[in-house]
Design brief:
alpha+beta, six-stranded mixed β-sheet, 11 helices, elongated
């Protein structure tokens, strides 16, 4: 029961701190608790949690604030991203990023269908996709084969080309970059990375969307992002389409409310 009370008390301290961004005293915490507990008992828990490195004081007469360790453990327990693929509304996503002081980026795949096969004087074939083109040396059998692929997505064409060993076509397709669309908001909350030479590359990796190629979905703390920060990468649905989302900010931002706000 003692450990249960301590866990409840710690959760409440963190919630109150995230909301107020100020140290939490024993009297104010007692007033907000749903269980009966004395101020003296709270102060004893405060001392124990400080000894464990979970809480700290800015000065001797102030209330307590959670340490980075406490906040990391809190978000590990509260954020369930592995078993969820939330539906996200883009306007709400923008509002939540700007209102909560969190940087957010969403990456969506842009359809790359083959629109036409163009015969250039029987010397070259131009395969015209929605946002790109590739050229092949003319071959009647390749032309007939390619025209049967009109209307298919590039990933499906890659698979078919591999199955039939159309190596020249496959090589060209592999050189095509992934066509995607990026939506990001709250860049000002990410700009601090540019102040440190060790994180400038990370800034451009994130804003270009390349971060999604390097890191799988998960929750990341220092080593991957600056100390005192958190980054969350997960799969989402945007306008009924598969997408990836990254949000990043200080550990003391309200990510619970952020997720509540972005849901469509």
């Amino acid at each position: 029961m003692m450990y249960r009370k301590k866990d409840l008390l710690l959760d409440k301290i963190i919630q109150e701190y995230i909301q107020s961004q100020s140290p939490i005293g024993s009297e104010s915490l007692k007033m907000s608790m749903s269980i009966k507990i004395s101020s003296a008992t709270i102060r004893n828990y405060f001392k124990a949690l400080c000894d464990e490195g979970i809480l700290t004081q800015t000065h001797i007469s102030s209330g307590r604030i959670p340490t980075a360790l406490a906040l990391k453990n809190y978000w590990r327990s509260k954020l369930n991203i592995k078993d969820s693929t939330p539906q996200v509304d883009l306007k709400k996503f923008q509002a939540a990023c700007e209102g909560k002081g969190i940087f957010g980026i969403i990456k969506t795949k842009v359809p790359q269908k083959l629109r036409a096969v163009i015969n250039c004087e029987h010397q070259f074939l131009i395969l015209d996709f929605e946002t790109d083109q590739i050229a092949l040396r003319f071959n009647p059998s390749i032309e007939r084969f390619a025209k049967e692929l009109v209307g298919l997505e590039v990933q499906d064409i890659r698979q078919i080309a591999h199955q039939v060993c159309a190596n020249a076509l496959l090589e060209k397709l592999e050189r095509m970059g992934e066509s995607c669309e990026l939506f990001y908001f709250g860049v000002e909350f990410l700009g601090f990375l540019l102040q440190y030479s060790g994180y400038q590359q990370l800034f451009f990796e994130i804003t270009s969307g390349r971060i999604f190629d390097r890191l799988p979905k998960g929750i990341y703390f220092e080593n991957a992002v600056p100390k005192g920060s958190i980054a969350i990468i997960q799969d989402i649905q945007l306008h009924q389409k598969e997408a990836k989302m990254l949000c990043m900010g200080a550990l003391d931002r309200d990510y619970t409310d952020f997720y509540d706000q972005i849901a469509s």
